[in-house]
Specification:
It is a single chain. Helix content is about 50%, strand content about 15%. The protein has helices at about 1-20, 30-45, 70-80, 120-145, 190-200, 205-215, 225-255, 280-290, 295-305, 315-330, and strands at about 55-60, 60-65, 80-90, 95-100, 105-115, 150, 160-165, 170-175. By secondary structure, the chain is of the alpha+beta class. Strands 6-2-1-7-8 form a 5-stranded mixed β-sheet. It is globular, with a radius of gyration of 24 Å. The chain has 4 domains: about 1-65 and about 160-175, no CATH class; about 80-145; about 180-250, no CATH class; about 280-330, no CATH class.
Length: about 325
């Protein structure tokens, strides 16, 4: 019995050795991938339930890449502070330099660079913030001595493929779709999927939830959103939904159901939050369809983002912003 156990442990050690030396986690079975993921999180002091890593294939090998939650936790655990030391344009490239220092007094510096060719308005603003984010994440990993790829770099790596691996079981579920659209930005169908998922999870509060998620990612809207940011937003909503569901379960178990409240004397009428002012004219609505070049799906997606179901509901205060976003979407 002891000999059999020793053999099993030896086999497992060989599998781990092959995976680590070859940097190919596909050599592990699902249970071993779960164990490896947990051990990596444990060694770095990361919370595995926040899913700080995800899987990707590079050069035909399955490996981990770092997500935003990982770098944020690393900074907190290691007492890392970061400041932007420089930002400049070189032709069509915007470059940001970030300096990091930890509680031991060590320092490091890295850059983040993005292409800004042909960008303007919100897309340009998002590109600036993205360069800053890349610089901060890269210097965080560097000062911690970690050589993993960060999610902000994936869309620029040729032949890189995200792999959907169930973190709880270690099973490889599917290969996630590659980047589509201009410069790796999401398609209108993916934008619609984001809002449909939010509505499924959060109902009437879905629009506000999406805006909160985007704000937390330093994004002003879904216009020009990268594939990696889209997947991060989807993941964050999933985590939020799971947390709310778990909290509801605990509340149901611990708190007795209250008796029904007395009927009010007068039933208050429900009031729609939009429109709050003057609705747009038929002529303005027709202009929206003209700008969208007849793309009803694009119009529906943008309207949903602003909390509307049809053009007749659009408030004049939102009209120009909606037209601008639809115009940008139609140009992709």
């Amino acid at each position: 019995m002891e000999n059999e156990l020793a053999l099993r442990q030896e086999d497992k050690a060989i599998i781990f050795e092959k995976a680590l030396i070859g940097d190919d986690l596909s050599k592990m079975n699902p249970a071993e991938r779960v164990m490896y993921y947990g051990k990596v999180c444990e060694s770095l002091g990361l919370n595995p339930y926040t899913k700080p890593f995800a899987y990707i294939t590079l050069n035909g090998k399955l490996t981990l890449y770092v997500k935003r939650d990982a770098t944020e936790q690393l900074r907190k655990n290691s007492g890392i502070s970061i400041k932007i030391s420089a930002a400049k344009k070189v032709d069509d490239i915007y470059i940001v330099s970030a300096q990091a220092s930890d509680k031991l007094g060590r320092t490091d510096e890295s850059i983040g660079a993005v292409s800004i060719k042909g960008l303007a308005g919100e897309n340009l603003a998002n590109a600036y913030m993205k360069a800053e984010t890349k610089a901060k994440r890269r210097v965080t990993l560097s000062i911690c001595g970690l050589g993993w790829t960060d999610e902000s770099e994936i869309e620029t790596i040729k032949d890189a493929k995200r792999i959907n691996v169930d973190i709880d079981t270690g099973e490889i579920v599917e290969t996630l779709p590659p980047a589509e659209g201009a410069s790796g930005t999401i398609t209108n169908q993916q934008r619609k999927q984001l809002f449909n998922t939010a509505e499924k999870y959060f109902g009437e509060t879905s629009v506000n939830i999406v805006k909160d998620v985007l704000n937390g990612m330093n994004l002003q809207s879904t216009q020009g959103m990268s594939i990696s940011d889209w997947q991060e937003a989807m993941n964050r909503m999933s985590v939020m939904h799971d947390e709310i569901t778990e909290a509801d379960k605990k509340s149901t178990k611990s708190v007795p159901l209250p008796s029904a409240p007395p009927e009010p004397e007068h039933q208050a009428e429900s009031v729609e939050t939009k429109p709050t002012g003057k609705p747009i004219t038929d002529k303005q609505a027709k202009r929206i369809y003209a700008i969208a070049k007849g793309d009803k799906e694009l119009i529906e997606t943008v309207l949903t983002e602003y909390g509307y179901q049809k053009t007749s509901q659009i408030d004049t205060s939102d009209y120009e912003a909606i037209c601008t976003e639809i115009e940008q979407g139609a140009g992709q």
